[in-house]
Write a structure and sequence with these properties.
mainly alpha
Amino acid sequence: MAFIDYTTEEMIPAADRVPDQDNIIRIHGVHSQTMRQHYDLYKELMYGKGPLSRIQREMIAVVVSAENRCRY
């Protein structure tokens, strides 16, 4: 597994900071605008209007993560 240092929150411009208590998205902190865009995409996919319920979306995410052998 690759190792990438996390950027400290203080080094990320305030406009690009996202609520990420698990530090999953913060791996993008070296390119903070990308981190913000990744977070915005996640919010839209998981909470935006669409034909799938929130629970269905989470179930799909779990299956894809398991198939990819993702640990989180």
